Structures are given as structure tokens and as C-alpha cells.
């Protein structure tokens, strides 16, 4: 399963960005789409977890405390994309953001990652 993120860039504090995640597998067959981020010199950290239902519609199950109320995850089944909407961005959100897809093949669960997209929050 191929995973790719897009939508990163430079944004001023208080601004918004929407990251997109595409997979080579239909969202209907994906079990989870999760978002992580890694800031320079820091370990990768969880941003949001999302369960994907049998219809491809996502349901968030967890947000990191640092992004609650500001970030929202969703899916667009027609586009076969998952999104991370980020509002009220601050410099602390600067990081490489990764999309992670989990797909249950029956005898094992595949764990797939994109290459990441850079988000820089700076004035």
C-alpha cells in the first residue's frame, strides 16, 4: 500500500493548512488512518488517530492534547483521501507530518507510512 501526504508549506502563526493523505488502497479496505509529526530533534509523536469504517468514512478516536480543538481529521470517500485540517497554527506545530495507514490483511496488519510533508509556522 502506497501512502503519500501533500499540502504542507509555510504559514504564519494563527493560520491554517489542510494536509491530504492518499493511499493506493481504497479507503474502504483501510482500517486506520493516523497522523504523526516529528519536529527537529524530537521523537515522532501522535497527532490524531482515525478509524475507517466499512464505507470509508473516518471517525476520529484520539487527538493529541496539544492539537485538540484546533486540528480535525476526516475522509473524502469519493476522492479516496484523508485530511488533517489544522487551524490556529503556532510555531510549536512546525514539524514533518506523516500519514500512517493500517490495513488488516487477515493474517497480519500492514503498517504503511508516507514520506512526510513539511509544515513550518513562522512569521
In words, what does this structure look like?
With 123 residues, this protein is mainly β. The protein has strands spanning 3-6, 9-11, 17-23, 32-38, 45-52, 58-63, 71-76, 81-86, 95-104, 109-113, 117-121. Strands 2, 4, 5, 6, 9, 10 and 11 form a 7-stranded mixed β-sheet that branches. A 4-stranded antiparallel β-sheet has the order 1-3-8-7, with no helix packed on it.
Keywords:
123 residues, seven-stranded mixed β-sheet, four-stranded antiparallel β-sheet
Please write out the topology:
Elements: E1 3-6, E2 9-11, E3 17-23, E4 32-38, E5 45-52, E6 58-63, E7 71-76, E8 81-86, E9 95-104, E10 109-113, E11 117-121
Parallel strand pairs: 2-11
Antiparallel strand pairs: 1-3, 3-8, 4-5, 4-9, 5-6, 7-8, 9-10, 9-11
Low-confidence stretches: none
Strand count, sense and barrel status of the largest sheet are: 7 strands, mixed
Principal-axes geometry comes out as globular
Using only C-alpha atoms, the radius of gyration works out to 14 Å
Structural class: mainly beta
In which range does the helix fraction lie?
under 10%
Number of helical elements: 0
For the record, give the distance between the C-alpha atoms at the N and C termini, rounded to a whole number: 37 Å
Order of helices and strands: EEEEEEEEEEE
Beta strand count: 11
Average pLDDT level:
96
Percent in strands: over 45%
Amino acid at each position: 500500500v502506497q501512502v503519500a501526504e501533500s499540502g504542507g508549506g509555510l504559514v504564519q502563526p494563527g493560520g491554517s493548512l489542510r494536509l491530504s493523505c492518499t493511499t493506493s488502497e481504497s479507503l474502504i479496505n483501510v482500517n486506520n488512518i493516523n497522523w504523526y509529526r516529528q519536529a527537529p530533534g524530537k521523537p515522532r509523536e501522535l497527532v490524531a488517530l482515525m478509524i475507517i469504517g466499512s464505507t470509508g468514512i473516518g471517525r476520529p478516536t484520539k487527538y493529541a492534547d496539544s492539537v485538540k480543538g484546533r486540528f480535525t481529521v476526516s475522509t473524502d470517500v469519493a476522492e479516496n483521501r484523508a485530511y488533517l485540517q489544522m487551524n490556529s497554527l503556532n510555531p510549536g506545530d512546525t514539524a514533518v507530518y506523516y500519514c500512517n495507514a493500517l490495513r488488516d490483511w487477515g493474517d497480519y496488519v500492514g503498517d504503511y507510512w508516507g514520506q512526510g510533508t513539511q509544515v513550518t509556522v513562522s512569521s
